[in-house]
Task: inverse folding
């Protein structure tokens, strides 16, 4: 299951989205996330759906591949839905069983929350699947560049992120391997109560941490051996320059955002009752 | 005691675009007490196969019988299977986690429900089997040398008293002496205690030297299954699979190509020396 | 290219307060001289000090006593650090833990980026280096999808892109399968032959040493044997005592010698042994 996390895994393809400047994609993802919280009513989500759908389509990443990332949050999703479903008070009670009840408002909030979460993951997956982590961190470094003057170690943060992203799949594979090795020694990760389960994790976590530290140590040495000495005096293999398509993309994205706000205003203006 | 593998297939990510048919209709019988070498290039399915033998991976179709009992049957305990069929992964020292050697080796027996005293007894015996004396018991496994760590990890599996021991490249990364020590110890376990051993290895020289039987995997299929002599006669086919024969096979072939009438089946140094000596003395 | 005089290094074990608890001498008064353009092998069992020595050549470690010069630069001079590391590149054992980029070509570009090479020049170097190790067609791949041997060749390309004169390979094949091993060694041999790069190969696989120009054997931090592969491998018993091995053909020749067959010392390859045996037979 842990292998299914697609966040941070690049999917190579030749698409407009892949070619966009990473800064555009970062900003777009931000705007998209904000827009999800701005969104109100079915109209708002419809616009968001259209936007997301179009981007996914253009990215040429198979939809099935993209939704693999969702499996990792199924639990979170369920909890959110259940809490909203049962705990939100509303005007009409749709269903009642003992002290449990579902109201119209609860149902609506639960559905919207679920959609919001799913879109959030899908939206960020589009970014990570179409942008190599190096591009991503380059973009971030450049976007946050002005903070350097405030002595924020922007380059270092970007480099750390890039390394973290590269090692996620390796550590996941390693987790899988250590888990199997301990199961072969009779370890049981599945049964037992919460405390027993937590205790059962020790034989998994200790070797995993040791391995992570060993890798960190090796990597630091390999980086130094290749003359890495921080961001000063470094050139870029792939320097970032905005192209015409990036400017066009910005226009589209801001257009989308304005539209979302417009939808929000209009719906609250008309105050359509159940939406 | 035996393991029978009947028509086993295994497919990763079935029904998706990433589907990989890792095992194709595998049929095998592993009788008691054999020393088996399992060879195949990386990705040939050998690791997947050994993980089936102790139930870590479940076959997509087919059956596996341990002592005539279906391991996928309803009343079959996987935990028991895992204690009877011990699996030592590649770089097993990466799974060590306890504060001292003895506690780490006790982990397996404790999981099987042994009392602390019983587990310690089994652990001591297992440490003895891999050549580590009492002076190592209280040391941290992380302070040991690479070869010693590996032996502690192997002891961790041996302490469960398996009847079948599967080792996935137990000598990877060790120096020549460390390699010989581990393989000699495994051989003595097989000879003296009658444990069945399955050795997954990339080294044809090691396989030729130690095992009675070789199973060759390629693209998820068993391609050859026989004694080292029988299998290495097919060295040209092995090369096509990205494998090779032991150096001695090539040397004997080289001699034959020069017209020498030597026994070309020799695969180990001793056999080759015998064959060459015999040839030199013959008329 | 590389010269060491009295090179000594200790690993220190600190207690909880940070005081030195014990000192272990990992490299012990090593003198060596490696000439440019050579293919050098350093043999030794695990813990013999060979990797510690290798890390000195790249100035990851600096000598506690004695001096090491890389191309005339003393590795203790801090202002020369980046010149030394550019000049003597290093490839490590674990293929996963030395690749920084998430795309092959980006990883190869990492070194030149650090050196401040202009963008156009980086691209040129990346292409040349990937081509030199035969990995150009994988340039857009993710390193995670490559085999161990391919990853190591990418690591070599990453070093090549820094235009070094010398590459130190610290057990580059220990974690690889036989095919991966072969491809990495052949790559190193080709770079040595065609680009004239000095190769210092650290290993405990004997077959990889046969083609070297010069072999150093280490034990307990010292150089205990050195010479051509033929000279070193003719000392079968001594190598065994050092936890090492000899090539299979050498071993068979040694076994036959023990049985009274009169073969010359220092046979390394199957073909040599076959020829010698046929010659013997024809004289009978």
Result:
């Amino acid at each position: 299951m842990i292998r299914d996390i697609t966040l941070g895994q690049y999917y190579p393809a030749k698409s407009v989205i892949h070619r966009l400047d990473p800064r555009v994609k970062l900003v777009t993802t931000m705007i998209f996330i904000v827009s999800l919280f701005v969104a109100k009513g079915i109209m708002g989500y419809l616009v968001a759906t259209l936007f997301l759908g179009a981007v996914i389509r253009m990215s040429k990443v198979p939809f099935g591949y993209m939704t693999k990332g969702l499996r990792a949050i199924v639990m979170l999703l369920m909890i959110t839905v259940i809490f909203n479903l049962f705990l939100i008070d509303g005007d009409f009670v749709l269903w009642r069983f003992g002290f449990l009840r579902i109201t119209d408002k609860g149902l609506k909030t639960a559905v919207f929350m679920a959609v919001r979460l799913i879109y959030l993951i899908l939206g960020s997956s589009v970014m990570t699947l179409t942008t190599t982590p190096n591009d991503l961190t380059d973009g971030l470094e450049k976007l946050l560049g002005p903070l350097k003057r405030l002595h924020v170690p922007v380059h270092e943060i970007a480099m750390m992120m890039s390394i973290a992203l590269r090692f996620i799949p390796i550590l996941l594979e390693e987790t899988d391997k250590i888990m199997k090795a301990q199961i072969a020694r009779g370890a049981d990760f599945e049964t037992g109560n919460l405390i027993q389960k937590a205790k059962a994790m020790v034989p998994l976590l200790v070797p995993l941490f040791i391995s992570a530290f060993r890798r960190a140590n090796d990597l630091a040495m390999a980086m130094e051996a290749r003359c890495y000495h921080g961001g000063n005096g470094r050139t870029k293999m792939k320097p970032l320059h905005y192209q015409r398509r990036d400017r066009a993309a910005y226009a589209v994205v801001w257009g989308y955002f304005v539209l979302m706000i417009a939808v929000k205003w209009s719906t609250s203006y008309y105050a359509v009752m159940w939406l | 005691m035996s393991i029978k593998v009947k028509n086993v297939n295994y497919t990763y990510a079935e029904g998706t675009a990433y589907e990989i048919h890792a095992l194709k209709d595998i049929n095998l019988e592993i009788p008691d007490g054999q020393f088996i070498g399992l060879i195949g290039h990386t990705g040939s399915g050998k690791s997947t196969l050994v993980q089936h033998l102790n139930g870590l991976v479940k076959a997509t179709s087919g059956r596996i019988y341990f002592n005539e009992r279906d391991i996928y049957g309803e009343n079959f305990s996987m935990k028991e299977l895992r204690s009877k069929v011990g699996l030592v992964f590649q770089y097993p020292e990466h799974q060590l986690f306890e504060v001292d050697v003895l506690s780490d080796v006790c982990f397996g027996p404790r999981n099987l429900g042994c009392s602390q005293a019983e587990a310690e007894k089994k652990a001591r015996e297992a440490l003895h089997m891999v050549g580590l004396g009492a002076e190592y018991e209280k040391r941290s496994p992380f302070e040991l040398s690479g070869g010693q760590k590996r032996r502690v990890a192997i002891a961790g599996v041996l302490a469960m008293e398996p009847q079948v021991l599967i080792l996935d490249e137990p000598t990877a990364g060790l120096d020549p002496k460390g390699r010989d020590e581990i393989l000699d110890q495994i051989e003595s376990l097989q000879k003296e205690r009658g444990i069945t051993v399955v050795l997954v290895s990339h080294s044809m020289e090691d396989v030729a030297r130690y095992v009675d039987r070789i199973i060759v995997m390629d693209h998820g299929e068993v391609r050859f299954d026989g004694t080292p002599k029988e299998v290495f006669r097919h060295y040209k086919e092995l090369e096509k699979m990205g494998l090779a024969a032991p150096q001695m096979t090539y040397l004997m072939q080289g001699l034959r190509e020069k017209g020498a009438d030597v026994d070309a089946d020799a695969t180990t140094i001793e056999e080759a020396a015998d064959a060459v000596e015999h040839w030199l003395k013959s008329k | 290219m590389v010269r060491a005089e009295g090179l000594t290094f200790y690993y220190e074990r600190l207690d909880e307060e940070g005081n030195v608890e014990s000192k272990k001498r990992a490299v012990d008064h090593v003198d060596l001289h490696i000439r440019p353009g050579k293919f050098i092998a350093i043999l030794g069992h695990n813990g013999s000090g060979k990797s510690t020595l290798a890390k000195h050549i790249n100035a990851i470690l600096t000598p506690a006593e004695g001096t090491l010069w890389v191309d005339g630069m003393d590795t203790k001079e801090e202002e020369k650090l980046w010149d030394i590391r550019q000049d003597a590149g290093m490839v490590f054992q674990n293929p996963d833990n030395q690749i920084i980029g998430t795309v092959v070509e980006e990883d190869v570009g990492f070194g030149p980026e650090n050196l401040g090479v202009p963008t156009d020049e980086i691209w040129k170097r990346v292409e040349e280096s990937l081509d030199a190790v035969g990995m150009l067609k994988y340039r857009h791949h993710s390193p995670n999808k490559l085999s161990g041997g391919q990853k190591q060749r990418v690591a070599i390309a990453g070093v090549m892109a820094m235009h070094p004169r010398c590459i130190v390979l610290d057990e580059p094949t220990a974690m690889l399968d036989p095919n991966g091993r072969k491809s990495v060694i052949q790559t190193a041999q080709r770079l040595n032959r065609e680009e004239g790069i000095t190769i210092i190969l650290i290993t405990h696989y004997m077959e990889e040493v046969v083609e070297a120009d010069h072999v150093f054997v280490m034990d307990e931090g010292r150089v205990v044997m050195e010479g051509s592969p033929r000279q070193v491998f003719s000392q079968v018993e001594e190598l065994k005592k050092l936890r090492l091995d000899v090539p299979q053909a050498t071993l068979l020749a040694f076994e036959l010698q023990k049985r009274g067959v009169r073969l010359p010392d220092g046979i390394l390859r199957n073909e040599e042994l076959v020829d010698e045996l046929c010659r013997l037979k024809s004289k009978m």
